[in-house]
């Protein structure tokens, strides 16, 4: 067990999350310990929580902070970096907040809370093919984990993402795990964009199966990383997503393939396929195209052709993930070939999923194009 969290608390958190998740017997994923999709669906556990049911004006700086009344929320950052020798590194850090009981705890204790926090840190060393990752859990009490709006900060133990005083940007990210440290400065090269309908991102047919969702699609990034004891100056670009809700997914939606793409002509693409239990792609799948001037528009499912061209089997033998794709957006003249920087970027912790850096090349209106990105693949564990 990690030295930063006592064993009894780890066991308590595991039991709380296990009891809270729908289908916690593993039936929704064929035995996956904790289901990412299960954590974000379930009409039966939504009672008592507010639901996201339509567009609503966002309020900043308040909405940079936590929304503890909702069942789930996350601050998600990924990036592609290079050192002075051109070696590539990808990174991910995500802070998740879960409300495990719509009723606030009644007992008098500094540790009493209905908020459970989880964070994932990962680093892809593309040159060596090594993938480092760690998961942490904590309760949202006594300063162990939490988020504040102004000054902005989100943290779990010593993993932190902080704003600059009263300003949200630039951000500073600091985190460390065995053999790896990350210390980065991120600053927005483009304004924030709202996903879906003015930040209302509907994933299911019922109004409550939705989330509030906004993104910073191009963050200029510089700083340092340490890998296997070697400190390296790095620079590149990052992407930040913010999302919260109560039950974004329908129970028939068993997973998703999500992509963030940064092209070298300053266009960005977010797109996801929601997969259903019968193997079909859900009609609620969608994305966003961001132009070089920061303007954006929604991409509907029928505008984007996304096909997996190669797969990889987890060494645990119970999951087969796509790791290369062809993406075409005919109406925009975009034709992209995308592939994992290294195939094994599976996070094998309490929540199993694949999240990794991808390389991109292709054409944009007849011009050759390259790019960087990230893919997140859930619901593949058999």
Please write out the topology:
Blueprint: H1 7-20, H2 36-39, E1 72-83, E2 88-99, E3 115-125, E4 130-139, E5 145-148, E6 153-156, E7 159-164, E8 167-177, E9 180-188, E10 193-194, E11 200-202, E12 210-227, E13 230-245, E14 253-263, E15 268-276, E16 286-290, E17 296-300, E18 305-313, E19 320-329, E20 334-340, E21 346-348, E22 352-364, E23 367-377
Antiparallel strand pairs: 1-2, 1-13, 2-3, 3-4, 5-6, 6-7, 7-8, 8-9, 9-12, 10-12, 11-12, 12-13, 14-15, 14-23, 15-16, 16-17, 18-19, 19-20, 20-22, 21-22, 22-23
Task: Summarize the structure in words.
By secondary structure, the protein is mostly beta strands. It has 2 helices and 23 strands. The chain has one domain: AttH-like domain (AttH-like fold, Beta Barrel). The strands form 2 sheets. Strands 1, 2, 3, 4, 5, 6, 7, 8, 9, 10, 11, 12 and 13 form a 13-stranded antiparallel beta sheet that branches. The longest helix is centred in the N-terminal third of the chain and has 14 residues. It comes from Natronocella acetinitrilica. GO terms for molecular function: hydrolase activity. Keywords: Hydrolase. This is Secreted hydrolase.
Total number of beta strands = 23
CATH superfamily: AttH-like domain
CATH architecture tag: Beta Barrel
Task: Give the count of structural domains.
Answer: 1
Major sheet details: 13 strands, antiparallel
Molecular shape: globular
From the helix content, strand content and strand pairing, which structural class follows? Answer: mainly beta
Oligomeric grouping of the chains: single chain
CATH topology: AttH-like fold
Beta-strand portion reads: over 45%
Helix content: under 10%
- Spatial separation of the terminal alpha carbons: 27 Å
Rg (C-alpha, Å)? 20 Å
Count helical runs. Answer: 2
